[in-house]
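Quick question, first post here. What does this chain look like in 3D?
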Amino acid sequence: MYIKLIETYSPANAQEAQDKKVILNYIKHFENNVLLRDNEIAHITSSGFIMNKSLDKALLVHHNIRKVWSWTGGHADGDEDLLHVSLKEAKEETGVIDIHPLTDGIASIDILPVFGHMKNSKYVNAHLHLSIAYVLIADEKNEVRICSEENSGVEWFPIDKFTQKYFDEGDVYLYNKLISFAHIAANKTTN
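> Answer (accepted):
Ran it through. Tokens below.
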């Protein structure tokens, strides 16, 4: 199921086209464990870029490992329904229960580096996240809750803050790509 979704995804640019090609090739070689953390070189993750209904703010969490404000997401852990993974992680990490996808389609495909780090008193080697992302929608009025195992903060950010003044270059690129996807997708549904 997830392979077909990746195959039919139309890349937004050259970066996504290349990453899609590499991810599909990697899946062919490691289909037995690409959805599991057991694959210590690269594995599938699913993230959610949570926006408000007017698409002018995004809900981020202050990530415990990366020590930066970040989108939500996590490991597939064997689940082939990557939209489900994205929604589950978004709800767990923000405490917001009423979150839904802007569209059922993939919003972004990226290969993201993860530097070596400690987690649960165990060293996790550097590896790659084969990221399948979705734009999710939540109401700003919903109560948020910190998930202390994952983050130390949950806050709404105006989209004009997604610049290198506030975020690193890679995150600025990624988040602005998702914001652009959200606006294009929303325009398609209203026209």
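The mean pLDDT is 96.
The CA atoms of residues 64 and 150 lie 6 Å apart.
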